[in-house]
Amino acid sequence: MGMNISKAFAIEKLQTERRRLEQNLAQLSEDDMLQPGVVGEWSVKDVLAHLADWEQRFLDWYAADQRGEIPQTPAPGLTWKLEDLDVLNRRIFEKHRDRPLREILTEFRDTHERLMASVQAMSEEEIVTPGRFAWIGKRALYSWLTGYANHDLWGKTQIRKWNKSRSRLTTAKPQPGAQTEPAKRLSREAFERARNLIKTQARPLDRALFEYRFEQAPAESVLAELAHFQNEDGGFGHALEPDVRTPASSALATGIGLRILKELDCPDGHPMVRQAVEFLLTTFDASSQVWRVVPANTNEFPHAPWWHDEDGSLARTFDGFRIIPRAELVGLLQHYAALVPVQWLDKVTESTAAYIETIKELGTGGGDDIQYALSLAEARELPDRFKARLATRLRALAPNSVSRDPQQWSSYCIAPLKLAASPQSLVADLIAQDLQAHLDYQIDHQTAEGGWEPTWSWGSFYPEEWEQAKIEWRGSLTLDTLTALRAFGRTEGI
Q: Is residue 175 scored above 60 in pLDDT?
């Protein structure tokens, strides 16, 4: 389950992310690239100027090192603290904002070519040896190079989200006579409180994910923390899902693990991916066409009451596991389809889609079932014939399932962001006004400490262990809330 730290992998990562970014740029006209709103006030042109400027900084730092100098990073008089990076990024924006688009595009590509040529000329030892360069500290140059690849990934993601949201959310029409007000945003100070909570209270995994999503930290830090939750059988456990404390592997936790691996863009050949998929293939119940959601020994360890199993009660509660956890797992396996038998995957996908289409009630209670069904419908690699069927059912259900009463949002319910955590969600356009109200609510209900609390508890089940799980959930939910607020453009300067 080790990471592939090598010059070759760093080069592959840089090339892959740049290629994907260029593919997204190819969908845009020059006029598109000049429209603001991609990241705050930035246009696509501004994003590309930002990426090129940072790559040029690396080239300058490395050149200074080769001359025997120790470069001042990230810039003279500034540190790597978030507030200093904000200052620097603003300077970069102001420096390039009035330059012609074609000039920026040429610089964006030329700078990357020079970066790749520089990396190609480096030795393996230069790239993989921790502490090799004084201006990097104890880390290896490899982590910086993959960080630049992740910077391209960030750029691609922001551009793709903006491009999709232009067509999707503009279709949502306001009610006649409705007043249009400026959207409420999470202030910089409020973001800093949330950041501090994650940095000081959240699990190392959630801290690493925060740094990956918001501070352009390398994916390897997340992988290193995620590896602690993966067992020898390839599955994930060890309270990766905080409400299930057994160390044993579960389909529930393995879905979370694979979801993170997918977010990090880990390829089919990554050992953590291969072993997780092998676990799912091995534990699949061919007779019932499902995975048991949590292992049989769950009762022997602290757990939330809804995961307790008495004489098959768990299967009855969760519809025989035909949606939870199966729907999300099938969507993830579609992403990693190269690792599974084609006919088997088609069969289990058909079984899952048919059940979602025909089940009498969906989206009741807390709405986890419809959330899992949406995760499958939104899987990019899902064949179109399944997407169309699922979209018909889920788009018909969502407007009638979502909880619109803010008084319910402090309890476990189908809150709008549960159905659509980003503007690209399959049902975001159908509940657009509800989403805006819920985003306002989340901003207003951040705790004084800076986080967001779980809306559920274990009751009298394992009260001491619940306190630990609650802390873990607080960090995870705070990260998820920040991610959603940013996706909808509800954070100031982030």
A: no
